[in-house]
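Researcher: Next sequence.
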Amino acid sequence: MKNICSSLWNFYAEGFRQMTLGRTLWFIILLKLFIMFAILRYFFFPDILSSQPTDEARSAFVAGQLLERAAPAAAHP
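Model: Next structure:
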């Protein structure tokens, strides 16, 4: 088992060492992921629950939001 793991590790490590264009593409992919998850998150997904002071208030807020959104769906069968 150890031999298989080390051979797989060497296979991928050697492949990444020999990449030229692939490194640039992986850098672009990682940069895009960083932008999507670290930067755009603050613009499109604000932290609404931070305005609630306690866990009980947060749970009441979430329950209220769920019931409010479920009420129109229940009215239309």
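Model: The chain has a mean pLDDT of 84. The chain is about 80% helix and 0% strand.
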